[in-house]
Write a structure and sequence with these properties.
Shape: globular
Strand content: 15-25%
Number of strands: 15
Strand order of the largest sheet: 12-10-9-8-7-6-15-14
Largest sheet: 8 strands, parallel
Number of helices: 13
CATH architecture of the largest domain: Alpha-Beta Barrel
CATH class of the largest domain: Alpha Beta
Distance between the termini: 24 Å
Structural class: alpha/beta
Radius of gyration: 20 Å
Length: 392
């Protein structure tokens, strides 16, 4: 199964191309290929990630065409007659963005972290956690497997803030992935020097997942000792100037968080020119200082997704793994029906998955990846969602 549909290039202006998907047109940035009108590409997150031969693309589109329009009808039917908050949000999502849904893979390559955040299970003070690091070639092989055998076109490389992976190692990893696979590469490696991020952008990385967690500066400093919110925000702004897609957002239900904080969280996410809103529930970990605090309710999280959608009709909103963990049976479905239109599937090797213990009992841990992919695709089809690029 491929988590993107090839589209036809119908317009080119500088390095921005217009891509047609069965009559729907999306904009995408082209940094890597020489393109002409009439050629076909895969795009993810508003970036062209692969050029496809006309013969291959038309063959794939022939198999997709009937299903694509069936999915549109299903999605439209589910978005009609909006009465509740969630239904209104789903209606707005359909109106502005159609039934496109970005599907990203994620590889969690190290659970070492130099930070001591009060809410995170891989904080450096958690002496009960068995630590691991994937070797650079192991990361590369996982990324190539994701692209060539599992069909992913976008991949998040995530770790704790582990400086064992210095600039040279990170550049080597991205270079090797770029040589062997066509992927939108998104980095989730925490606060690094802007010079480091510039090197990685030059090498081929194009996205950064870096949440600010809370817009309340005093709460931020309490939860992230020796860190300041202003530094995080400044880094996000600089990374956007570099050219990165920005994936950011906040935690819902943090101890001490107020409704006003949540409102400000949503506004701050939007004000940063965020390309993908990423926010989910605080899930307490027993080996952290916040381990005895309760998680927020499912309705509280869904309401924030819905209100974010209503306030930001064209936003790309990620249904996080934390939300899925909050309700393992229906979390993904409810998140998508409350205004979400993107998700991630964990592709970390099974022997490491349980060790990336940012919060306990994560959904999908040690589940067969093929089975997880199949169940996700079935759910998306039941909701009328198609893996087309959401565009810029």
């Amino acid at each position: 199964m491929c988590y993107a549909i090839p589209g036809k290039v119908v317009g080119i202006k500088d390095n921005i191309v217009t891509v047609d998907y069965f009559g729907e047109k999306k904009k995408a940035k082209n940094d890597f290929y020489s393109l002409e009108r009439g050629e076909y590409v895969y795009a993810q997150g508003g970036f062209v990630v692969q050029k496809v031969s006309i013969q291959e693309a038309e063959s794939i589109l022939d198999t997709w065409k009937e299903l694509f329009f069936q999915l549109q009808k299903t999605d439209l039917k589910l978005a009609q007659n909006p009465k509740t908050l969630y239904q209104r949000a789903n209606y707005i999502r359909n109106k502005y963005l159609g039934n496109a849904c970005c599907i990203h893979g994620i590889i969690e390559f190290s659970n070492y972290c130099r930070c001591d955040c009060l809410y995170c299970g891989i904080r450096k003070s958690n002496s009960e956690l068995l630590r691991y690091r994937m070797e650079p070639d192991e990361i590369v092989n996982g990324a190539v497997e994701a692209a060539k055998n599992l069909g992913f076109k976008a991949l998040v490389l995530q770790s704790g803030e582990d400086l064992w992976y210095d600039d040279d190692k990170l550049v080597e990893i991205i270079n090797k992935i770029r040589e062997k696979a066509a992927l939108l590469l998104v980095l989730s490696i925490g606060e690094r020097d802007v010079k480091t991020y510039k090197k990685l952008y030059k090498t081929g990385a194009r996205g950064v997942l870096l949440r600010f967690e809370t817009s309340n500066a005093s709460l931020y400093q309490k939860l992230r000792p020796k860190h300041k919110l202003e530094d995080r925000i400044e880094l996000l702004k600089k990374l956007r100037e570099v050219g990165y897609l920005i994936f950011t957002g906040f935690l819902i239900g943090l101890p001490g968080q107020t409704k006003e904080d949540i409102d400000n969280d949503i506004k701050l996410t939007a004000s940063l020119g965020t390309d993908m809103f990423s926010f989910g529930p605080f899930l307490p970990h027993p080996q952290t200082p916040l381990g005895k605090y309760p998680a927020p309710s499912l309705d509280a999280v869904l309401s924030i997704i819905a209100n974010t959608r209503l306030a930001n009709p064209e936003a790309k909103i990620l249904v996080t793994t934390a939300l899925e963990t909050l309700d393992k049976e229906n979390g993904m479905k409810f998140g998508l029906l409350a205004g979400g239109n993107s998700l991630m599937i964990n592709l970390t090797p099974q022997k490491y998955q349980r060790l990336y213990d940012i919060y306990p009992d994560r959904v999908g841990i040690e589940e067969d990846i093929s089975r997880r992919i199949d169940s996700t695709i079935k759910l998306l089809h039941s909701l009328g969602r198609a893996p087309a690029d959401l565009g810029l």
